[in-house]
């Protein structure tokens, strides 16, 4: 089984916390640009904010907009967009040999609505209504099971912690079940990931506090290969030196997911967390920030470097392969999910921490919800890989005597 599958599968299991929290402290650029929810990757230069105006490398941005640069003067840009020649009146700026232009002027001229997401410092270019039919109407089948006992109902939903708009709308069965829920259960409440308290926790546990750096804890070969990847992505080779291997690994994975258009902000669990906030129903956590971070931090030194090295060695294929995993989720393919889940068994330490121990804890809590006799409905959303297999939540609940029905 290829190692990249296990790297990607981690994104359906437990990196929702890190996918939300880590990029905030280790992103490749302070300001990002997304075109219809797909991140633009800048390798020569990076977006900057100057006196309230976001400037972006012109040629890379035009390429991402499928526009051709026809010519420039000191105060104008001529480009070809959808076969039409447009002129942008703007003063250009040269920085380290790269030509920059204001993103708002470029986006407006190319026919996009330009928005600013303050929380993530992201410029959003959104296509204006032009009669195009969104593929999102197809949504996804996903994974959902139902368990009933003593007047209580628990729906078990398998999440992908990173997704895009093509996952939505979800099947009506998801929305109907959630509409009746009294509680939303999740691994951790990702809406709190950017809170100062959680950021401090990630930093204190995920960075070295003893004066050492990453270079002191991994092999020279691993460190060198990491530096090569960082340089290719516009970063200094030592940009992540302050962080432990498990943070670096997840940061690299998150960056690749972003380049594939998959974001934690669109993840299935965060989607329902936001809906729970709108409905004002309680969000209960099956785990905690402390427990998830502690799990990663307690991995042996050997395992931390092994998983980091796997991500480094497979870095170039992760974004394309992520789309394959997204299709697996959208088609609700149990067989493929089980095959991927079984890749964890290659490493006993990793499998026990990531799946076995956590699945037992989750199943015990769900058992408690089913037995409380209050006639309540729980809508539980956790990483899809927690459900199937000999140690999966479905099997654990069946072993407790429950009938678990795939929906």
Automatic annotation (TrEMBL):
Record has Repeat as a keyword: no
A Pfam family annotated for this UniProt entry: TraB_PrgY_gumN
CDD domains: Tiki
Domain Copper amine oxidase-like N-terminal residue range list: 74-124
InterPro entries linked to this entry: Cu_amine_oxidase-like_N (IPR012854), Mao_N_sf (IPR036582), TraB/PrgY/GumN_fam (IPR002816), YbaP-like (IPR047111)
Signal peptide stretch: 1-26
Transmembrane segments: none
Keywords per UniProt: Signal
Superkingdom, natural source: Bacteria
Keyword Repeat assigned: no
Protein name, entry field: Copper amine oxidase-like N-terminal domain-containing protein
Organism (species): Paenibacillus polysaccharolyticus
Lineage: Bacteria, Bacillati, Bacillota, Bacilli, Bacillales
